[in-house]
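Example 4.3 (complexes with small molecules)
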Amino acid sequence: MKPILYICREMPEEMVAPLREFYEVDMWPSTSEAVPREVLLEKVATATALWVVISDRIDQEVLDAAPELKIIVNMAVGYNHILVEEARARGIIVTNTPDVLTETTADLAFALLMATARDMMGAEKAMRAGKWTSWEPLGFTGVDVYGSTLGIIGMGRIGEAVMRRAKAFNMNVLYHNRRRKPGVEDMHGCRYATLETLLSNSDFVLVLVPFSEETKGIIGAEEIGMMKETAILVNVSRGGIVDETALFKALQSHTIRAAGLDVFEIEPLPMDSPLLTLPNITVLPHIGSATIKTRLAMISLNQKALLAFAKGEEPNHQVMK
Ligand code: DGY
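Answer. The structure with (2R)-2,3-dihydroxypropanoic acid bound is encoded below.
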């Protein structure tokens, strides 16, 4: 009997087909709707392998319900939705998809920064609503990106990729990271700063740290209060790192100028979220890695990890090995 693989989202058949030789494949038949919790709990009861996306919460309850589980492949670089320590303690391998999404996510981070700086969404919406009635001397004005100061919180692979883009825009780059990166400083001329210095000196603050108990809420009311009144906050990492209530208040009272968010505490963002009432916010539905090439590359890494596991080889990109 082949081991059972449960796939929590419908994946392209050409990617799933090679797995059928090694696994009894069962798949949630929707690309757009998450597998319901009760279905997931039922399916993991017999699964040896599980293929998840970021909306599948793999917590104690799921692990307890999965006595046969040996591998979880995760179609994301971030894995805060998986109780990795506990999985590891149970001998379950967890894999993710780093590297292949670095440049794509950096593109999106920079695009969101620019869109927020120039309020492109607001201008587009106004134009479609027939509000472009004449050329106004100070109409539809934003702030400059070129030559301004960017503060990057979290100088990992994506942070470095954003910094290369920022340098092409002649930006002065500050960064804050758990550990200093002298090599990156020498190569790109960016400067390490304390969180306080970064917040108070940046025109754009970009959040790129992964979500963890240590980073949860690190940008709260006090930190936002340190930012310039003209500054823009951009988060493309995970919701929950920025305190949304504090951010809402700061945007509403114009303590900072604007925010660009690709990620939220609750996803999908509920339509009654107060954030959606603000004019000075640009929102996107968590699309950092969303290009066809990159999403297919992520799927391919997961597929290869599953194939390797089935053949008794080392799966790629094991988290906390
Ligand atoms: C990730 O990979 O963690 C992104 O947030 C989803 O692509």
